[in-house]
C-alpha cells in the first residue's frame, strides 16, 4: 500500500519501510546497464520504481497528470525489451457523449544512461480541449543496495539548469541526473523534494500535441561493466515456428531480453556476457552467466567463449579469506560497491568468490563449447585456466578430503549457502531443520563429475597430461556419491539434497534430482528412479518443478528456494531427462514451462510461486522476482535443444538429432541454430519426421528412425 503526499506523489508507506520492494506488477524495460521500473500505467511512484543506470537510481519519481482531470489508465505494457507503451483516458475532457475523447499516450525507450518518455495527447472529440499537464519528478540517487533493502535515502534537491531553463538537475559527489522537456515547458519549478514541468495544452478537434522528456545519468566513477557496443549479439537469431505459437512468442521475447542484458568487459570490450537480471542482479555473476551461456550454445559458441574469458581474467590467484578467493576459483559476483544482505548484519565485498559451483561449471562450459565447435585455438588458450579450476576442486573445493565438494562461509559475513539455492534457509532436512555447514550439495557433485570427465577429455584431445588422473577422480566421486547420498522413504530410494557438517544425508526431496540426470553420475536404474520422482505431484507443479517437495517440512510455495519454481531449474531437468532417455517426463515438464510462459506474457521471471495447477489455472508470481532474468530467458533454448535431442560432437564430426517433440507443437521448424560455426536448421513434419540442414562435413545421426546422413 502507498500513501499520497499533498503534491500527489507516491511514497513508500511507513509500514513497508525496511522491506524488499515487490516487482510482480511492474513493467521493466532495459538496455543494460540501464533499466526502468514502473507501474502498469507508466507512472514511477515508489518502492523499486525508477530509472536506473548501473547500481544507482537516477529517477525515483516521474508522473504525468492533467490538473483537475481524473485519469483512467486503459492499457500499458512492453513493446520490446527496451520499450513500453501506456495509454490513459483523460476523463471528461472534450466529451460530448459517453465515449472518451482525449487520450494521453506515453511511449518509453530505455538506453544506456538515457530514458526517453515521448508524450502524446490526442483530441478525438468534437470540441476543443484545454488542459494543463504536470510532470512531477524526483530522485533519491539511491544505490541498488538501499532500494533492495527498502531503506532508500531521502529525496535529493532539484535545481534548474540556468543555461537552458528547461532542465531539472540532481547531483551528488558522483552522479549527475538531468531531465529535459522538449518543447520547452510553460513553467518549471525546483525544490528540496524534486521538480515539476508544466505544459498548457490547447487542442482543437482532431489535434495532436507531442513532447519528449529525456532523462540522462552520468556517473563520474563509471560502471564496472559498460553496455555492449551496438551490433548483433554474439549468437545467431533463433526462429521457431510451431503449431503452438506460445513457444514461438516465448523464444522471441526471451531473445529480445537476452540481447538487452548484454554487458561488456572493460578490460576487453569485445568480450560480452549476460548480466544476471534486472533489477537486483544487473551485473556479472559467475554461476548465472555460465549457465546462461551454456543454455545458448545451440545458437553458437561466441557468447560462451567470451564469458569464459571474462571469468578467466578474474580467476582466483591467492587465498583471501575476506573475499573467499582461492587459487583457481571462479568468482560469484562483481559490484561497484559491497552489498548488505537483507535481514542480516552481513555484507559481501565488491568482488566476491563465495560460490562452490561456478568453478566446475566453468570447466563444463569450456568442454561443451568445444563439442559444439568452438575454435580449437580458443579452447587451447583457456586450458591452463581449466587445469587451475580442476586443481581447485581437489585442493580447495574438497577442503576436508572426503572426496566431495563442500562449502562453508568462513567469514561469518558472506553467503551461508553457496550453491544456486543460496538463501539462508535453502538447504534443510525433510522435517524442516536447517542443515549446518560445511555442506556438500548433490547437484554440485554432478557438476564436479561432469567437469572432471569433460576436463579429462579436453586434456587428452589437446595432448596435455592429467586426463587419466581426472577420470579416476570422477569414478571415485561416483562411487562415493552412491554410498553417501542415497536415502529411502516410502516411495523408494533417492539422493539426499546434501550432506551436512556431520556427513549426514540431508534427506529432503528437491528439484536437484534434475541436475544429476544425464551427467553420467548415475546408472540407468538410478536415473529411472529419479525420472519417476520428478514426475510426481509433490515436485511437478504443472508449471515446472518445485525447488522443495510440497510434502517436506518447511515447504513454502512463496519461499525463495523452498517450494518456488525456477524456470532455469526446470529446464535443466528437462535437458537431463532427455539426455538420460526419458522423453515423456521431459516433454511434460517442458509443457508446464510453456504454459507458465504464456501466462507471464512470454517473459518468464527469475522464479514464481510453487502453487500447482490443481489450485489454480495460472501461475502465481513471486513478488520480488527479477524479470527478465538471464537464465530464465535462456531456458527456452535449452528446452528446444532437449526436445530436438541435439547432441553435438564436432571434434569427431557428428551431430545426433533425437527429436521427441510433443504432438501439440508439430509441425515445427527451428532455424537460426548453429553447430561447428555454421547454420543448422531442423524441420519436423506433423508426424515428427525430421528434415535436417547441417553444415558440410558434419554427419547427422537421427536416432528416431535409426538413420544416418552425411551433409
Task: Give keywords.
Beta-galactosidase, Chain A, domain 5; eight-stranded antiparallel beta sheet; 3 domains; 37 strands; disordered N terminus; about 700 residues; 13 helices; about 25% helix
What does this structure look like?
The protein is globular and about 80 Å long. It folds into three domains: 2-219, Distorted Sandwich (Beta-galactosidase, Chain A, domain 5); 283-508, Glycosyltransferase, CATH 1.50.10; 656-710, no CATH class. The chain contains 13 helices and 37 strands. The chain has an eight-stranded antiparallel beta sheet with strand order 8-9-10-11-18-15-14-13. The protein is of the alpha+beta class and 711 residues long.
- In what order do the strands lie side by side in the largest sheet? 8-9-10-11-18-15-14-13
Query: Percentage of helical residues?
Result: 25-40%
Oligomer: single chain
Structural class by sheet pairing and helices: alpha+beta
Count of discrete domains: 3
CATH fold label of the largest domain: Glycosyltransferase
What gap, in angstroms, lies between the N and C termini?
62 Å
- From the alpha carbons, calculate the radius of gyration and give it in angstroms: 27 Å
In short:
The protein has 711 residues and is an alpha+beta fold. Helices cover 25% and strands 27% of the residues. It contains 13 helices and 37 strands.
SSE topology:
Layout: E1 2-4, E2 10-12, E3 27-31, E4 34-38, E5 50-53, E6 56-59, E7 61-66, E8 71-80, E9 83-90, E10 102-111, E11 114-123, E12 129-138, H1 144-148, E13 159-160, E14 167-171, E15 175-182, E16 187-191, E17 194-203, E18 208-219, E19 239-242, H2 245-260, E20 262-265, E21 268-274, H3 286-295, H4 302-313, E22 333-334, E23 339-340, E24 347-348, E25 351-352, H5 358-372, H6 376-397, E26 440-441, H7 442-461, H8 467-485, E27 486-489, E28 492-495, E29 498-499, E30 505-506, H9 513-516, H10 524-534, H11 567-580, H12 583-599, H13 630-644, E31 646-649, E32 654-657, E33 668-675, E34 678-684, E35 690-693, E36 699-702, E37 707-710
Parallel strand pairs: 32-36
Antiparallel strand pairs: 1-2, 3-4, 4-5, 5-6, 7-12, 8-9, 9-10, 10-11, 11-18, 12-17, 13-14, 14-15, 15-18, 16-17, 19-33, 20-21, 22-25, 23-24, 26-29, 27-28, 29-30, 31-32, 33-34, 34-35, 36-37
Helix pairs in contact: 2-13, 3-4, 3-5, 3-13, 4-5, 4-6, 5-6, 5-7, 6-7, 7-8, 11-12, 11-13
Amino acid at each position: 500500500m502507498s500513501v499520497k503526499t499533498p503534491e500527489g506523489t507516491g511514497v513508500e508507506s511507513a509500514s513497508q519501510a525496511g522491506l524488499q520492494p515487490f516487482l510482480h506488477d511492474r513493467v521493466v524495460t532495459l538496455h543494460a546497464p540501464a533499466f526502468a521500473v514502473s507501474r502498469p500505467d507508466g507512472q514511477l511512484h515508489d518502492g523499486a520504481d525508477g530509472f536506473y543506470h548501473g547500481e544507482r537510481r537516477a529517477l525515483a519519481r516521474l508522473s504525468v497528470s492533467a490538473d483537475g482531470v481524473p485519469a483512467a489508465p486503459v492499457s500499458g505494457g512492453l513493446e520490446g525489451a527496451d520499450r513500453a507503451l501506456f495509454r490513459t483516458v483523460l476523463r471528461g475532457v472534450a466529451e460530448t457523449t459517453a465515449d472518451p475523447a482525449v487520450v494521453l499516450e506515453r511511449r518509453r525507450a530505455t538506453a544506456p544512461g538515457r530514458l526517453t518518455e515521448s508524450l502524446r495527447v490526442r483530441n478525438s472529440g468534437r470540441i476543443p480541449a484545454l488542459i494543463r499537464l504536470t510532470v512531477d519528478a524526483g530522485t533519491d540517487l539511491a544505490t541498488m543496495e538501499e532500494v533492495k533493502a527498502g531503506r532508500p535515502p531521502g529525496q535529493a534537491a532539484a535545481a534548474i539548469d540556468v543555461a537552458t531553463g528547461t532542465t531539472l538537475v540532481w547531483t551528488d559527489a558522483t552522479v549527475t541526473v538531468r531531465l529535459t522537456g522538449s518543447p520547452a515547458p510553460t513553467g518549471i519549478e525546483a525544490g528540496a523534494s524534486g521538480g515539476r514541468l508544466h505544459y498548457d495544452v490547447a487542442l482543437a478537434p482532431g489535434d495532436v500535441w507531442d513532447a519528449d522528456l529525456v532523462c540522462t545519468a552520468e556517473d563520474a566513477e563509471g560502471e564496472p561493466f559498460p553496455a555492449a557496443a551496438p551490433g548483433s549479439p554474439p549468437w545467431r537469431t533463433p526462429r521457431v515456428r510451431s503449431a503452438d505459437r506460445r513457444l514461438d512468442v516465448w523464444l522471441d521475447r526471451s531473445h529480445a531480453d537476452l540481447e538487452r542484458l548484454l554487458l561488456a568487459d572493460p578490460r576487453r570490450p569485445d568480450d560480452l556476457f549476460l548480466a544476471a537480471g534486472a533489477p537486483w542482479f544487473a551485473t556479472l555473476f559467475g554461476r548465472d552467466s555460465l549457465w546462461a551461456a551454456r543454455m545458448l550454445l545451440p545458437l553458437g559458441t561466441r557468447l560462451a567463449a567470451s564469458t569464459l574469458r571474462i571469468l578467466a581474467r578474474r580467476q582466483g590467484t591467492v587465498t583471501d579469506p575476506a573475499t573467499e578467493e582461492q587459487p583457481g576459483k571462479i568468482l560469484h559476483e562483481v559490484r561497484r560497491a559491497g552489498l548488505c544482505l537483507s535481514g542480516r548484519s552481513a555484507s559481501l565485498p565488491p568482488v566476491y568468490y563465495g560460490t562452490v559451483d561456478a568453478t566446475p561449471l566453468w570447466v563444463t562450459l569450456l568442454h561443451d563449447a568445444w563439442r559444439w565447435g568452438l575454435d580449437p585455438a580458443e579452447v587451447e588458450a583457456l586450458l591452463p585456466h581449466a587445469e587451475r579450476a580442476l586443481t581447485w576442486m581437489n585442493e580447495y573445493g574438497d577442503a576436508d578430503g572426503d572426496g566431495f565438494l563442500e562449502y562453508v562461509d568462513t567469514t561469518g559475513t558472506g553467503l551461508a549457502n553457496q550453491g544456486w539455492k543460496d538463501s539462508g534457509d535453502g538447504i534443510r532436512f525433510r522435517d524442516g531443520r536447517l542443515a549446518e555447514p560445511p555442506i556438500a550439495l548433490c547437484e554440485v557433485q554432478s557438476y564436479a563429475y561432469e567437469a572432471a570427465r569433460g576436463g579429462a577429455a579436453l586434456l587428452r584431445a589437446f595432448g596435455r597430461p592429467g586426463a587419466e588422473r581426472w577420470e579416476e577422480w570422477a569414478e571415485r566421486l561416483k562411487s562415493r556419491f552412491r554410498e553417501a547420498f542415497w536415502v529411502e522413504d516410502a516411495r523408494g530410494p533417492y539422493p539426499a539434497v546434501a550432506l551436512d557438517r556431520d556427513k549426514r544425508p540431508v534427506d529432503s526431496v528437491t528439484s536437484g534430482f534434475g541436475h544429476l540426470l544425464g551427467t553420467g553420475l548415475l546408472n540407468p536404474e538410478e536415473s529411472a528412479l529419479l525420472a519417476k520422482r520428478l514426475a510426481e505431484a509433490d515436485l511437478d507443479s504443472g508449471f515446472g518443478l518445485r525447488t522443495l517437495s510440497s510434502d517436506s517440512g518447511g515447504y513454502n510455495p512463496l519461499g525463495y528456494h523452498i517450494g518456488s519454481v525456477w524456470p532455469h531449474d526446470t529446464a535443466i531437468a528437462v535437458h537431463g531427462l532427455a539426455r538420460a532417455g526419458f522423453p515423456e517426463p521431459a516433454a511434460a515438464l517442458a509443457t508446464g514451462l510453456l504454459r507458465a510462459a504464456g501466462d507471464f506474457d512470454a517473459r518468464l521471471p527469475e522464479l514464481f510461486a510453487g502453487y500447482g495447477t490443481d489450485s489454480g489455472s495460472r501461475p502465481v508470481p513471486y513478488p520480488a522476482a527479477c524479470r527478465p532474468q538471464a537464465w530464465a530467458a535462456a531456458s527456452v533454448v535449452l528446452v528446444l535443444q532437449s526436445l530436438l535431442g541435439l547432441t553435438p560432437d564436432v571434434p569427431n564430426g557428428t551431430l545426433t538429432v533425437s527429436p521427441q517433440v510433443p504432438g501439440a507443437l508439430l509441425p515445427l521448424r527451428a532455424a537460426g541454430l548453429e553447430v561447428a560455426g555454421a547454420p543448422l536448421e531442423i524441420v519436423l513434419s506433423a508426424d515428427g519426421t525430421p528434415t535436417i540442414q547441417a553444415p558440410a562435413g558434419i554427419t547427422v545421426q537421427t536416432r528416431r528412425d535409426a538413420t544416418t546422413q552425411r551433409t
